[in-house]
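Key result, reporting period 2: structure in, sequence out.
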């Protein structure tokens, strides 16, 4: 039986040809490291996006609402961070934080929406 080196700890082990790790602990540790945010920068952006989403969700419990810019800013909303934009045929641009979105209206008002069919 051919011995291979564990991708996580470097120990030699035997077993199936397609096996990459010596034990479940090494396999789990390797994939946990691989799937965590690799830098403080990415972690901060992801946290900001999640916070923006939570704010939109809290201010829009029914799926449609109108709030002021001050309402959003008071909760800590950061307008520079959103996941995608949706442009309507009439030229209006909705910005979304995942499935929760907003549209800037007149007089510092914002229309909040919930997009049920989010994945495109």
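The corresponding designed sequence is given below.
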């Amino acid at each position: 039986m051919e011995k291979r080196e564990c991708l996580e700890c470097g120990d030699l082990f035997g077993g199936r040809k397609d096996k990459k790790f010596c034990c479940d602990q090494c396999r789990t540790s390797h994939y946990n490291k691989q799937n965590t945010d690799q830098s403080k920068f990415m972690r901060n952006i992801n946290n900001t996006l999640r916070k923006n989403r939570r704010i939109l969700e809290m201010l829009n419990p029914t799926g449609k609402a109108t709030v002021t810019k001050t309402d959003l800013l008071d909760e800590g909303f950061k307008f520079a961070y959103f996941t995608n934009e949706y442009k309507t045929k009439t030229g209006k641009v909705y910005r979304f934080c995942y499935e929760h979105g907003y549209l800037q209206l007149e007089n510092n008002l914002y229309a909040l929406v919930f997009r049920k069919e989010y994945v495109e």
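The two ends are 48 Å apart (CA to CA). The chain has a mean pLDDT of 92. This case is discussed further under Risks and Mitigation.
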